[in-house]
Amino acid sequence: MTRAERRGPLPAGSLGSLVRLPEPGEQDDGLVRLNRNERLEPLPDLFVERLRSLVESDLLTSYPVTDRLYAALAESLSVDRSQLLLSPGSDAAVKALYHAYVEPGDRVVMLDPSYAMYSVYAEMFQAEATRVPFDSLAGMDVERLLAAILPGVKLVLIANPNQPTGTLMPEDALLEVARRALEAGALLAVDEAYYPFSGATLLPRVAELPNLAVLRSFSKAAGLAGLRIGFVAADAHVVGDLYKVRSVHDVNAFAMACALELLAQPEVIDDYVEHVREGERVLRERAEALGLTVTPSYANFSLVEVADRCPAADLVERLRDRGYIVRGPFSAPPLARHIRVTLGPPHVMNKFCDALTDALSQDGSNGS
Fold this sequence. Notes:
The chain is globular, with a radius of gyration of 21 Å. It is 38% helix and 15% strand. It is of the alpha/beta class. The longest helix has 23 residues, at 267-289. Helix 8 links the parallel strand 6 and strand 7 (212-217). The strands form three sheets. Strands 2-8-7-6-5-3-4 form a seven-stranded mixed β-sheet, with helices on both faces. It has a three-stranded antiparallel β-sheet with strand order 9-10-12. Strands 1-11 form a two-stranded parallel sheet. Helix 4 packs parallel to helix 5. It starts with 31 loop residues before the first strand and ends in a 7-residue tail after the last helix. The model has no long low-confidence stretch (mean pLDDT 93). It has helices at residues 45-53, 57-61, 67-77, 90-101, 117-124, 142-148, 171-184, 195-198, 236-244, 253-264, 267-289, 312-321, 346-361; strands at 32-33, 84-87, 107-112, 128-133, 153-159, 187-191, 212-217, 230-234, 293-294, 301-305, 324-325, 338-342. The chain folds into two domains: 28-42 and 268-364, Aspartate Aminotransferase, domain 1 (Alpha-Beta Complex), CATH 3.90.1150.10; 45-264, Type I PLP-dependent aspartate aminotransferase-like (Major domain) (Aspartate Aminotransferase, domain 2, 3-Layer(aba) Sandwich).
Protein backbone atom coordinates (compact mmCIF):
# COMPACT_ATOMS: atom_id res chain seq x y z
CA MET A 1 0.00 0.00 0.00
CA THR A 2 1.41 3.39 -1.00
CA ARG A 3 1.23 6.49 1.19
CA ALA A 4 -1.32 7.94 -1.23
CA GLU A 5 -3.55 4.86 -0.84
CA ARG A 6 -3.36 4.72 2.92
CA ARG A 7 -6.13 6.28 4.97
CA GLY A 8 -5.62 7.62 8.47
CA PRO A 9 -2.42 8.67 10.24
CA LEU A 10 0.99 7.79 8.82
CA PRO A 11 3.76 6.33 10.99
CA ALA A 12 6.93 8.21 11.83
CA GLY A 13 9.31 8.41 8.89
CA SER A 14 11.69 5.85 10.36
CA LEU A 15 8.95 3.20 10.31
CA GLY A 16 7.78 3.75 6.75
CA SER A 17 10.31 1.38 5.21
CA LEU A 18 10.73 -0.94 8.19
CA VAL A 19 9.41 -4.45 7.54
CA ARG A 20 8.95 -6.95 10.35
CA LEU A 21 7.46 -10.40 10.07
CA PRO A 22 4.71 -11.29 12.54
CA GLU A 23 5.63 -13.64 15.35
CA PRO A 24 4.11 -17.13 15.15
CA GLY A 25 0.57 -17.01 16.46
CA GLU A 26 0.16 -20.75 17.03
CA GLN A 27 2.17 -23.56 18.49
CA ASP A 28 3.77 -25.96 16.03
CA ASP A 29 1.76 -28.91 17.28
CA GLY A 30 3.72 -32.13 17.39
CA LEU A 31 6.96 -30.49 16.26
CA VAL A 32 10.09 -30.20 18.39
CA ARG A 33 11.38 -26.62 18.21
CA LEU A 34 15.15 -26.72 17.83
CA ASN A 35 15.12 -23.28 16.20
CA ARG A 36 14.56 -20.85 19.09
CA ASN A 37 17.29 -21.72 21.60
CA GLU A 38 14.74 -22.39 24.33
CA ARG A 39 15.19 -24.70 27.28
CA LEU A 40 14.37 -28.20 25.99
CA GLU A 41 14.05 -29.89 29.38
CA PRO A 42 11.14 -29.18 31.72
CA LEU A 43 11.87 -27.26 34.89
CA PRO A 44 12.09 -29.67 37.87
CA ASP A 45 8.70 -30.67 39.26
CA LEU A 46 9.50 -29.47 42.78
CA PHE A 47 10.62 -26.13 41.41
CA VAL A 48 7.43 -25.74 39.36
CA GLU A 49 5.33 -26.64 42.41
CA ARG A 50 7.14 -23.93 44.35
CA LEU A 51 6.31 -21.43 41.60
CA ARG A 52 2.65 -22.45 41.71
CA SER A 53 2.59 -21.81 45.43
CA LEU A 54 3.67 -18.22 44.82
CA VAL A 55 0.52 -17.38 42.87
CA GLU A 56 -1.72 -15.65 45.38
CA SER A 57 -4.20 -12.86 44.87
CA ASP A 58 -1.85 -10.08 45.99
CA LEU A 59 0.74 -11.12 43.41
CA LEU A 60 -1.82 -10.60 40.66
CA THR A 61 -3.74 -7.58 41.94
CA SER A 62 -0.88 -5.39 43.18
CA TYR A 63 1.62 -3.48 41.10
CA PRO A 64 5.05 -5.14 41.05
CA VAL A 65 7.56 -4.35 43.80
CA THR A 66 11.19 -4.74 42.76
CA ASP A 67 13.14 -4.35 46.01
CA ARG A 68 13.63 -8.04 46.89
CA LEU A 69 14.86 -9.04 43.44
CA TYR A 70 17.23 -6.10 43.20
CA ALA A 71 18.71 -6.97 46.60
CA ALA A 72 19.11 -10.63 45.67
CA LEU A 73 20.69 -9.80 42.30
CA ALA A 74 23.10 -7.30 43.83
CA GLU A 75 24.24 -9.90 46.37
CA SER A 76 24.47 -12.71 43.80
CA LEU A 77 26.47 -10.61 41.32
CA SER A 78 28.53 -8.65 43.87
CA VAL A 79 27.51 -5.33 42.37
CA ASP A 80 25.92 -2.25 43.87
CA ARG A 81 22.16 -1.86 43.59
CA SER A 82 22.71 1.41 41.71
CA GLN A 83 24.43 -0.56 38.93
CA LEU A 84 21.40 -2.74 38.11
CA LEU A 85 18.23 -2.26 36.09
CA LEU A 86 15.61 -4.94 35.53
CA SER A 87 14.18 -5.26 32.04
CA PRO A 88 11.54 -7.37 30.29
CA GLY A 89 14.17 -9.58 28.70
CA SER A 90 17.54 -8.51 27.31
CA ASP A 91 15.87 -7.49 24.05
CA ALA A 92 14.03 -4.67 25.84
CA ALA A 93 17.35 -3.59 27.30
CA VAL A 94 18.82 -3.27 23.79
CA LYS A 95 15.89 -1.09 22.75
CA ALA A 96 16.38 1.06 25.85
CA LEU A 97 20.05 1.56 24.96
CA TYR A 98 19.05 2.87 21.55
CA HIS A 99 16.38 5.08 23.09
CA ALA A 100 18.77 6.57 25.63
CA TYR A 101 21.92 7.00 23.56
CA VAL A 102 21.26 6.94 19.82
CA GLU A 103 19.94 9.85 17.76
CA PRO A 104 19.11 9.95 14.04
CA GLY A 105 22.29 9.74 11.99
CA ASP A 106 24.42 8.25 14.78
CA ARG A 107 26.38 5.13 13.99
CA VAL A 108 26.00 1.80 15.76
CA VAL A 109 28.61 -0.94 15.37
CA MET A 110 27.55 -4.60 15.45
CA LEU A 111 28.78 -7.97 14.28
CA ASP A 112 27.40 -9.57 11.12
CA PRO A 113 25.69 -11.93 11.48
CA SER A 114 24.39 -11.36 14.98
CA TYR A 115 21.10 -11.00 16.83
CA ALA A 116 18.64 -9.69 14.22
CA MET A 117 16.99 -7.07 16.44
CA TYR A 118 20.20 -5.04 16.70
CA SER A 119 19.81 -3.88 13.11
CA VAL A 120 16.01 -3.59 13.39
CA TYR A 121 16.41 -1.10 16.22
CA ALA A 122 19.05 0.77 14.23
CA GLU A 123 16.50 1.31 11.48
CA MET A 124 13.76 2.12 13.96
CA PHE A 125 15.85 4.85 15.61
CA GLN A 126 17.23 6.11 12.27
CA ALA A 127 20.81 5.15 13.07
CA GLU A 128 23.48 4.04 10.63
CA ALA A 129 24.34 0.39 11.27
CA THR A 130 28.01 -0.46 10.74
CA ARG A 131 28.18 -4.23 10.36
CA VAL A 132 31.51 -5.96 10.91
CA PRO A 133 31.35 -9.30 9.08
CA PHE A 134 32.77 -12.67 10.04
CA ASP A 135 35.11 -14.02 7.38
CA SER A 136 34.94 -17.45 8.97
CA LEU A 137 33.57 -19.21 12.00
CA ALA A 138 37.04 -19.31 13.52
CA GLY A 139 36.27 -15.97 15.20
CA MET A 140 35.96 -12.25 14.75
CA ASP A 141 38.76 -10.12 13.28
CA VAL A 142 39.19 -7.83 16.28
CA GLU A 143 41.31 -5.34 14.36
CA ARG A 144 38.53 -4.89 11.82
CA LEU A 145 36.08 -4.36 14.66
CA LEU A 146 38.33 -1.78 16.32
CA ALA A 147 38.78 0.06 13.03
CA ALA A 148 35.00 0.48 12.78
CA ILE A 149 34.74 2.31 16.12
CA LEU A 150 35.30 5.89 15.03
CA PRO A 151 34.01 9.28 16.21
CA GLY A 152 30.29 9.40 15.50
CA VAL A 153 29.73 5.88 16.82
CA LYS A 154 27.42 6.01 19.84
CA LEU A 155 26.83 2.34 20.55
CA VAL A 156 28.77 -0.90 20.05
CA LEU A 157 26.71 -4.09 20.40
CA ILE A 158 28.51 -7.38 20.98
CA ALA A 159 26.61 -10.59 21.69
CA ASN A 160 29.06 -12.80 23.57
CA PRO A 161 28.64 -15.66 22.82
CA ASN A 162 27.41 -14.45 19.48
CA GLN A 163 24.23 -15.68 17.88
CA PRO A 164 24.02 -17.45 15.44
CA THR A 165 27.75 -18.22 15.19
CA GLY A 166 28.21 -19.48 18.77
CA THR A 167 31.63 -17.82 18.86
CA LEU A 168 33.14 -16.22 21.96
CA MET A 169 35.26 -13.08 22.01
CA PRO A 170 38.08 -13.26 24.61
CA GLU A 171 38.00 -10.85 27.54
CA ASP A 172 41.20 -9.06 26.50
CA ALA A 173 39.71 -8.32 23.08
CA LEU A 174 36.49 -7.03 24.64
CA LEU A 175 38.46 -4.77 26.95
CA GLU A 176 40.30 -3.37 23.95
CA VAL A 177 36.95 -2.72 22.28
CA ALA A 178 35.71 -1.00 25.45
CA ARG A 179 38.75 1.30 25.50
CA ARG A 180 38.34 2.18 21.83
CA ALA A 181 34.64 2.84 22.37
CA LEU A 182 35.41 5.12 25.31
CA GLU A 183 37.82 7.13 23.15
CA ALA A 184 35.07 7.51 20.53
CA GLY A 185 32.48 8.50 23.13
CA ALA A 186 30.49 5.29 22.64
CA LEU A 187 28.85 2.83 24.96
CA LEU A 188 29.81 -0.85 24.69
CA ALA A 189 26.92 -3.23 25.36
CA VAL A 190 27.90 -6.87 25.84
CA ASP A 191 24.87 -9.13 25.50
CA GLU A 192 25.49 -12.19 27.66
CA ALA A 193 22.17 -13.97 27.09
CA TYR A 194 24.05 -17.29 26.83
CA TYR A 195 26.40 -16.66 29.76
CA PRO A 196 25.43 -19.78 31.76
CA PHE A 197 26.68 -21.95 28.90
CA SER A 198 29.91 -20.03 28.19
CA GLY A 199 30.92 -19.10 31.73
CA ALA A 200 32.62 -16.01 30.27
CA THR A 201 31.56 -12.61 31.49
CA LEU A 202 32.64 -9.00 31.59
CA LEU A 203 30.29 -8.14 34.43
CA PRO A 204 33.02 -7.72 37.10
CA ARG A 205 34.48 -4.95 34.89
CA VAL A 206 31.36 -2.79 35.20
CA ALA A 207 32.78 -1.08 38.29
CA GLU A 208 35.83 0.17 36.40
CA LEU A 209 34.48 0.85 32.90
CA PRO A 210 32.02 3.76 32.79
CA ASN A 211 30.96 2.96 29.21
CA LEU A 212 30.24 -0.75 29.68
CA ALA A 213 26.77 -2.30 29.95
CA VAL A 214 26.34 -6.05 30.44
CA LEU A 215 22.98 -7.56 29.48
CA ARG A 216 21.65 -10.83 30.92
CA SER A 217 18.47 -12.84 30.44
CA PHE A 218 16.52 -15.49 32.35
CA SER A 219 15.19 -16.87 29.05
CA LYS A 220 17.81 -19.42 28.00
CA ALA A 221 19.34 -21.72 30.63
CA ALA A 222 16.89 -20.55 33.29
CA GLY A 223 13.95 -21.44 31.06
CA LEU A 224 11.80 -18.35 31.71
CA ALA A 225 11.48 -17.34 28.05
CA GLY A 226 7.72 -16.96 28.42
CA LEU A 227 8.03 -14.50 31.31
CA ARG A 228 10.36 -11.96 29.66
CA ILE A 229 12.78 -10.94 32.37
CA GLY A 230 16.43 -9.88 32.32
CA PHE A 231 18.64 -7.10 33.59
CA VAL A 232 21.39 -4.64 32.75
CA ALA A 233 24.51 -4.16 34.86
CA ALA A 234 26.32 -0.89 34.19
CA ASP A 235 27.76 2.26 35.70
CA ALA A 236 25.17 4.02 37.88
CA HIS A 237 24.98 6.92 35.42
CA VAL A 238 24.18 4.54 32.55
CA VAL A 239 21.54 2.80 34.67
CA GLY A 240 20.06 6.20 35.45
CA ASP A 241 19.84 7.04 31.75
CA LEU A 242 18.13 3.74 30.97
CA TYR A 243 15.71 4.22 33.84
CA LYS A 244 14.51 7.44 32.22
CA VAL A 245 13.23 5.59 29.13
CA ARG A 246 11.68 2.55 30.82
CA SER A 247 7.96 1.97 31.04
CA VAL A 248 6.36 2.05 34.47
CA HIS A 249 6.15 -1.43 36.03
CA ASP A 250 7.64 -2.97 32.89
CA VAL A 251 8.66 -6.24 34.60
CA ASN A 252 5.74 -8.27 35.91
CA ALA A 253 5.43 -9.54 39.48
CA PHE A 254 5.31 -13.25 38.66
CA ALA A 255 8.43 -13.01 36.49
CA MET A 256 10.29 -11.38 39.39
CA ALA A 257 9.04 -14.01 41.85
CA CYS A 258 10.30 -16.78 39.54
CA ALA A 259 13.68 -15.07 39.10
CA LEU A 260 14.01 -14.83 42.88
CA GLU A 261 13.40 -18.56 43.19
CA LEU A 262 16.05 -19.28 40.56
CA LEU A 263 18.59 -17.19 42.45
CA ALA A 264 17.77 -19.24 45.54
CA GLN A 265 18.07 -22.54 43.62
CA PRO A 266 20.98 -22.11 41.18
CA GLU A 267 21.16 -25.88 40.64
CA VAL A 268 18.09 -25.56 38.39
CA ILE A 269 20.32 -23.73 35.90
CA ASP A 270 23.58 -25.54 36.64
CA ASP A 271 22.08 -29.01 36.15
CA TYR A 272 20.53 -28.03 32.83
CA VAL A 273 23.78 -26.54 31.56
CA GLU A 274 25.50 -29.87 32.23
CA HIS A 275 22.72 -31.74 30.43
CA VAL A 276 23.15 -29.46 27.42
CA ARG A 277 26.88 -30.14 27.36
CA GLU A 278 26.17 -33.86 27.39
CA GLY A 279 23.67 -33.37 24.58
CA GLU A 280 26.22 -31.42 22.56
CA ARG A 281 28.60 -34.37 22.78
CA VAL A 282 25.86 -36.66 21.47
CA LEU A 283 25.15 -34.36 18.53
CA ARG A 284 28.82 -33.91 17.68
CA GLU A 285 29.66 -37.62 17.77
CA ARG A 286 26.63 -38.76 15.81
CA ALA A 287 26.83 -35.93 13.25
CA GLU A 288 30.50 -36.61 12.63
CA ALA A 289 29.66 -40.28 12.10
CA LEU A 290 27.35 -39.09 9.32
CA GLY A 291 30.17 -37.09 7.71
CA LEU A 292 28.95 -33.72 9.04
CA THR A 293 30.92 -31.13 11.00
CA VAL A 294 29.66 -29.53 14.20
CA THR A 295 31.23 -26.14 14.91
CA PRO A 296 32.32 -25.64 18.54
CA SER A 297 29.78 -23.47 20.35
CA TYR A 298 29.73 -21.62 23.65
CA ALA A 299 25.93 -21.39 23.73
CA ASN A 300 22.97 -23.76 23.78
CA PHE A 301 23.00 -24.29 20.03
CA SER A 302 25.37 -25.72 17.47
CA LEU A 303 25.98 -25.03 13.80
CA VAL A 304 26.08 -28.20 11.73
CA GLU A 305 27.85 -27.96 8.39
CA VAL A 306 26.03 -30.16 5.93
CA ALA A 307 28.69 -29.61 3.26
CA ASP A 308 27.79 -31.49 0.08
CA ARG A 309 25.62 -34.08 1.78
CA CYS A 310 22.38 -32.14 1.31
CA PRO A 311 21.50 -28.49 0.59
CA ALA A 312 20.72 -26.76 3.88
CA ALA A 313 17.26 -25.62 2.72
CA ASP A 314 16.33 -29.17 1.70
CA LEU A 315 17.57 -30.62 4.97
CA VAL A 316 15.52 -28.11 6.98
CA GLU A 317 12.38 -29.24 5.16
CA ARG A 318 13.21 -32.94 5.52
CA LEU A 319 13.73 -32.51 9.25
CA ARG A 320 10.43 -30.65 9.58
CA ASP A 321 8.72 -33.57 7.86
CA ARG A 322 10.23 -35.74 10.57
CA GLY A 323 9.02 -33.54 13.42
CA TYR A 324 11.92 -31.14 14.01
CA ILE A 325 12.26 -27.41 13.31
CA VAL A 326 15.81 -26.11 12.91
CA ARG A 327 17.18 -22.81 11.62
CA GLY A 328 18.61 -22.36 8.15
CA PRO A 329 19.63 -21.73 5.51
CA PHE A 330 21.62 -18.57 6.30
CA SER A 331 22.56 -15.77 3.92
CA ALA A 332 25.90 -14.93 5.58
CA PRO A 333 28.68 -16.64 3.55
CA PRO A 334 30.40 -18.40 6.48
CA LEU A 335 27.07 -20.01 7.42
CA ALA A 336 25.74 -20.79 3.96
CA ARG A 337 26.12 -24.56 4.27
CA HIS A 338 24.98 -24.82 7.88
CA ILE A 339 21.87 -25.46 9.89
CA ARG A 340 21.55 -24.30 13.51
CA VAL A 341 20.28 -26.75 16.10
CA THR A 342 19.22 -25.88 19.63
CA LEU A 343 20.95 -28.18 22.09
CA GLY A 344 19.16 -30.14 24.78
CA PRO A 345 19.70 -33.16 27.02
CA PRO A 346 21.05 -36.41 25.51
CA HIS A 347 17.67 -38.12 25.01
CA VAL A 348 16.43 -35.14 22.96
CA MET A 349 19.57 -35.02 20.85
CA ASN A 350 19.61 -38.76 20.24
CA LYS A 351 16.05 -38.66 18.90
CA PHE A 352 16.95 -35.68 16.73
CA CYS A 353 20.01 -37.49 15.39
CA ASP A 354 17.81 -40.44 14.46
CA ALA A 355 15.69 -38.04 12.41
CA LEU A 356 18.82 -36.43 10.94
CA THR A 357 20.15 -39.83 9.88
CA ASP A 358 16.85 -40.67 8.22
CA ALA A 359 16.66 -37.26 6.52
CA LEU A 360 20.13 -37.66 5.03
CA SER A 361 19.29 -41.12 3.71
CA GLN A 362 16.33 -39.77 1.70
CA ASP A 363 16.73 -40.10 -2.05
CA GLY A 364 20.20 -41.57 -1.68
CA SER A 365 21.64 -38.50 0.05
CA ASN A 366 23.69 -40.69 2.36
CA GLY A 367 26.48 -40.57 -0.15
CA SER A 368 26.26 -44.25 -1.07
